[in-house]
Structures are given as structure tokens and as C-alpha cells.
Design goal:
Layout lengths: L7 E9 L15 H25 L5 E5 L1 H7 L2 H24 L6 H21 L4 H10 L3 E4 L15 H19 L5 E3 L9 H7 L4 E4 L1 H5 L13 E2 L5 E4 L2 H8 L18 H4 L2 H4 L34 H30 L3 E8 L10 H13 L4 E3 L2 H6 L31 H14 L5 H17 L3 H7 L4 H18 L5 H10 L17
Parallel strand pairs: 1-2, 1-8, 1-9, 2-3, 4-5, 5-7
Antiparallel strand pairs: 6-7
Helix pairs in contact: 1-4, 1-5, 3-4, 12-13, 15-16, 15-18, 16-18, 17-18
């Protein structure tokens, strides 16, 4: 049995998502740092990589889902103004650090950080003119990206299966938002948290989506079992195709014990100059009340898993670069070995799906963009595997097995516990009660439609999977709790008699999805 001429296709699928963290009444909200840090550390570097690959004529095909909440924030004038000021403050701080450390061992690192923020300023203000959404759209037009969507506010859809109207709304609003932002409807979706229950694919088919990504066991536990395991997508009865995650490719990057980002040469993300230096040195970067925040300048490396933060060794860029080269080579070589073995035994090319949160590459793993660059260039230099997007795989004309994928997610335990447990179980009943209340008011009279559109926005925002995730992981618990309660409180006000000034104030606070139509809430009207 001779193997196919090219044994495999590697589907690199990045998911760019952040919850909606816009605070119109708070000038210096810590939560907005989530967006600002991601722009500097992840989205600008990714745009820069795409441009560099294009200039170097490196063939690249990557799938990128951009959540509607992130898209809205990347186009929000208030947030972009605040980010611009933050970026300028960070550049000023990095230059002060360059002067402060000029005669010591930190000098090369401070110089590198200053260059990094100078490049970020040039890219944001000049190269991309503050519009990263257009930068992604341009990369799609060049054929580098396949842009996909996710649920409107990243709701964990399996927990709303009893209310199909809410599931439909999450999908319909997402598709409308995506089309408005990128000029075309998406062909596929990243299901939030890779959460799937049987029947969800029918909702995807109803709104015109062709494929989704799911965790490995969602396919390997399918009925009937998949003939090709996780090395090929499968087709649901609805005609929608499920792409299973390749566990080996994921573990190589995600695993906190054995994954590449834990190497001792890489930058230690938990030790930041914002907490190491005197408060006076931080100046305007301090939070209100003098509290500290991360500033993105880190002088130390991981050194060792059990090494205390205070004992970490200084970062060595040359050693990190050598490690990136070795890790990228290992990643590609291992994918080739898997693909060749599968192709020889099954006489068909393997489809290796490597889905990752985009924020891993730059924010959680400083060297992530350089690793991604090295992986893409390594793949370009081999004939064994090729980069492909899910649509490329579908367009190749191969036939895939018809089966019924199983309930699954990529959360702890593989199902829905992360988003529904003893810490979060107060949320879902309130969401479901609000869902029933909203739909009981449809169709709406002309005088009620404006308030109900805003009520729908508040309900969708309350549904975000980010809030129960935060509660389960015991991070910013007060903030997550307040967000869910505030959205639901505002929802209740909007579904009662409400005066014009209050309605206008709520619209100014959460102006997301300006094109939302009440028809998006009804499958029959879409």
C-alpha cells in the first residue's frame, strides 16, 4: 500500500477572544488591561507575522476565529483612545527603564523592551492605523487567513440547549457581526470552549455554518466510532463537519508540565517590572489608588518549575531563540511522523487539527509568536505536510464518515463542569428565566423594540462563558459576579417601563452589536 504523495495537512486554528470589558464610567479599569495587553502582545505581533510572511512569500493558510466581542472592542473608539494612551505611557516607561539600566546587566533587555514598544507604536498608529480588524480582513483577502466566528458573546452553548431560541440568537448575532466587520459571512465556527451536545450541529446548519472544531473525545466517542479516529473530520447528520483536536499537537503546546512554554529558557511571565520596581518609577501606569499592574516588561526567565520568583535567573534572548528553533523543529517533525505513519497504514492523508487560544502566542507565552513563525517556515520547507484551513480540507473533495459526535468540551473533565458547578450554579437559572421573559415579549410593538434590542444585548453579555470560568478558577470573582448581576439587573429594567434617559445611558454603556435586529432572536424570521 503506497501512501499519498503528501501524507498530511496541518490545520492551525487560532481562537482570538476576550470578554466585553468596556467601562464608560471608569477611566483606568484594570479589566480593560486584558484587551490592551492582548493587542500589544498578541494581535499586533500576529498582524506583523502575516505581513512578514506575505513579504517573504511564505505560503501560509491558518484559520482564525475572532469573537464578536473582541471585534467590537477592536473597533470601539473609546477603547482605542484609551489603548493609544496606554501604549504611549508604556513606551515612555520603557525608555525610562533603558536609561535607568544603561550601566548594568539589564541594559540589553531594557533596550530590547524599548524597541518592542517602539515597534508596537509604529504598527498601531502607522502601519495599521489603529484598525486590526481591517488588518485581519486584508490577510483573508490575500489568502493567508480563513476567518471564522464564535457565539456572539462566547456563551457555553450546551448549557442553553433547552432554549434553542437563545442558541439561535447567539449564532445569528455572531454571523451578522462577522459579516459587518469582515465583509463576508463565516463558513465555520469555533464553538465556545469547544462545547458540543448532540443536536447543536443542526443549529449551525440552520444559520449556514459548514464546520466546527471539537475536542478529541467528542469524535472518538461518536456513534458509530470513527474509522480514522482523530485523524479525519466526521460529518454530522445535518451535513455540518466536525474537526477533532489532535491531542499530541495540543499537548506539546498546552501542557503545563510537558509543553514547550514551560522550558527554563523562556521568559517568566509571572514576574513583572510593575511589581518589582518602586511605585514612583511606574508613574501613570499605576492604577487608581496607587495599586500596581503588570506593565509587560519582564527581565527574568522561567529557570525552573520549583525556583521561587525572587530567585529567577535573568532572561537570555539568545538561549530562548535557540530553544524556539529546537521546539518548532520538534513540533513539525512530530506532526510529520504522525502523518506519515497514518498515511502508510490507512492510504489517505491525515488531517491534524491544532487549535489554540490566540492569546497563548505572545501573552501567556512571550516567545509564542516566534514559535509560530518558525513552525510556519518549517512547514513551508517540507513536502510531507502542508498548512490547510478547514475549508481547504472540505474543498479537497475527500469523503468523510457520517456519525454522531458525542457531548464534549475542552474544559476540565471534558464536559461542562467548569461552567456549571457549586460555585456557578446560581447563574444558569437566572439566564434561563431572562430568556423566557424576553421571548415572551416578542413580537414587540414599535415603541418597545428599542428597549428590547438593548435588553437582548444585556442578556447576551450575561451569557458569556468567561464569567463562570472566572468564578470556577477563583480569579477576579467580585468582578465576574458583578458583571453577571449588572447585566441581568439592566435586563430587568429594560423589560419593564423605562424612561428615555435611562435607556440612552444603557445604550452608551454597552453599544455592542449596533446592527442587532429582533429578527435575529427568532429562527423563523431569519
Amino acid at each position: 500500500m503506497s501512501p499519498p504523495s503528501r501524507p498530511g495537512r496541518l490545520v492551525l486554528f487560532l481562537h482570538a477572544h476576550l470578554p466585553y470589558v468596556r467601562h464608560v464610567d471608569r477611566e483606568n479599569a484594570l479589566e480593560e488591561d486584558w484587551l490592551f495587553e492582548a493587542i500589544t502582545d498578541v494581535y499586533l505581533p500576529l498582524c506583523r507575522l502575516l505581513d512578514r510572511w506575505n513579504a517573504d512569500r511564505v505560503p501560509v493558510r491558518i484559520a482564525l476565529s475572532v469573537s464578536p466581542t473582541l471585534t467590537a472592542m477592536l473597533r470601539d473608539r473609546l477603547l482605542l483612545q484609551r489603548y493609544a494612551k496606554r501604549l504611549e505611557d508604556l513606551l515612555a516607561f520603557a525608555r525610562r527603564e533603558r536609561r535607568r539600566t544603561s550601566d548594568g546587566p539589564l541594559a540589553p533587555l531594557a533596550e530590547s523592551n524599548a524597541h518592542r514598544f517602539e515597534a508596537a507604536c509604529t504598527d498601531f498608529f502607522e502601519t495599521y492605523d489603529g484598525d486590526l480588524v481591517e488588518a485581519f480582513a486584508r490577510a483573508q483577502r490575500r489568502g493567508q487567513l480563513e476567518l471564522c466566528t464564535t457565539a456572539a458573546t462566547h456563551a457555553f452553548l450546551p448549557h442553553h440547549a433547552l432554549h434553542p431560541e437563545l442558541v439561535h440568537a447567539q449564532l445569528a448575532v455572531a454571523i451578522r457581526s462577522h459579516h459587518t466587520a469582515f465583509g463576508a459571512a463565516p463558513h465555520g465556527i469555533w464553538l465556545p470552549e469547544c462545547g458540543y451536545v448532540p443536536g447543536l450541529d443542526e443549529h449551525l446548519a440552520d444559520v449556514g455554518l459548514a464546520y466546527f472544531v471539537m475536542d478529541t473525545h467528542g469524535v472518538t466517542n461518536a456513534d458509530p466510532p470513527p474509522v480514522f479516529g482523530h485523524y479525519a473530520p466526521v460529518v454530522c447528520a445535518s451535513g455540518v463537519v466536525a474537526f477533532p483536536r489532535d491531542p499530541a499537537a495540543s499537548a506539546a503546546v498546552w501542557s503545563d508540565r510537558h509543553g514547550y512554554p514551560g522550558a527554563p529558557e523562556y521568559q517568566e511571565r509571572h514576574r513583572d517590572a510593575g511589581f518589582d520596581l518602586d511605585a514612583e518609577a511606574l508613574g501613570p501606569l499605576l492604577l487608581d489608588g496607587g495599586q500596581r499592574r503588570s506593565v509587560g516588561i519582564k527581565y527574568h526567565r522561567i529557570t525552573g518549575r520549583d525556583v521561587p520568583l525572587g530567585d529567577k535567573a535573568l532572561y537570555d534572548p539568545a538561549a530562548a531563540a535557540a530553544r524556539i528553533h529546537a521546539d518548532a523543529e520538534h513540533f513539525v517533525r512530530t506532526r510529520i511522523d504522525d502523518a506519515v505513519h497514518f498515511a502508510r497504514t490507512r492510504d489517505r492523508p491525515a488531517v491534524l487539527v491544532a487549535p489554540f487560544d490566540a492569546e497563548l502566542f505572545g501573552h501567556w507565552w512571550f516567545e509564542g509568536p516566534a514559535f509560530l513563525d518558525a513552525v510556519v517556515r518549517n512547514v513551508a520547507n517540507t513536502d510531507a505536510i502542508a498548512l490547510a484551513t478547514p475549508r481547504d480540507v472540505l474543498d479537497a473533495g475527500e469523503r468523510f464518515q457520517l456519525t454522531a459526535p458525542a457531548h464534549s468540551s475542552w474544559g476540565a473533565g471534558g464536559y461542562g463542569w467548569t461552567w456549571l458547578n457549586e460555585t456557578t450554579d446560581w447563574i444558569l437559572p437566572r439566564l434561563h428565566a431572562a430568556t423566557e421573559r424576553l421571548w415572551s415579549k416578542l413580537p414587540a410593538s414599535p415603541q418597545d423594540q428599542r428597549a428590547l434590542r438593548q435588553a437582548a444585548r444585556e442578556l447576551l453579555l450575561a451569557c458569556a462563558s468567561d464569567w463562570p470560568f472566572i468564578l470556577t478558577n477563583d480569579s477576579v470573582v467580585e468582578y465576574a459576579t458583578a458583571r453577571v448581576r449588572q447585566h441581568l439587573d439592566d435586563f430587568q429594567r429594560l423589560t419593564r417601563t423605562i424612561d428615555e434617559p435611562t435607556l440612552a445611558a444603557l445604550e452608551r454603556a454597552h453599544p455592542i452589536f449596533p446592527g442587532l435586529q429582533l429578527a435575529d432572536l427568532s429562527p423563523e424570521d431569519s
